[in-house]
Amino acid sequence: MADNKIPVTKQEIRPAKKKLRDEIKCQRDKLLLMNIYDLSLKIQKNLFSLQEFTNAHIIMYYLSFKSEVDTFAMIAETLDMGKNVVVPLVNSGKKQISAVQIFNLKDDIEPGAFGIPEPVDKINVFTPKKIGLVLVPGVVFNTSGYRIGYGGGYYDKWLKDIAPERRIGLAFDFQVMDREIPRTKYDLPVNKIVTEKRIISITHSRKEID
Known about the structure:
The protein is of the alpha/beta class. The protein has six helices and 13 strands. The radius of gyration is 16 Å and the shape is globular.
């Protein structure tokens, strides 16, 4: 499915994004913890089967919060594989994130901005070009790879410096829509979406991903 319509300004599409975000987040928040855990393990299995994951030596995970796809088991196993793991550190003043390396989940994580877990150590920062794979959170995705996050724009700023083939979204299958979703030219697509049921590969034109 192609998404050709791009609203002119963020102001025009903000209410539509909020409505869809609230609807899907409400559905996601109804999942029981056991459901989240079981579905996330299936997503992990699909993710680990990808050649992009196998080839990546440095992987950026988000640190899951509340009803998001749980990344903690994925991170623990990735570290056990000997791969390097980096996670977001939020600068809320600048609305930016940076990627900081962690070595274990017990000692290297603490509650940060908005209560979201973040790294304790702020020193081991990796530049985007060093990161082999970025796993992208979202509330809503579509089968063209576009996403609706939480409205801060942090990841879209970060993804500008990440090659499209290194962007993979993680989502429960009901979060993925087979239709256009509200977006602007600043919203950047992922190259694949991994759910508990499928792996969605997306082909983008150069105009879309630049």
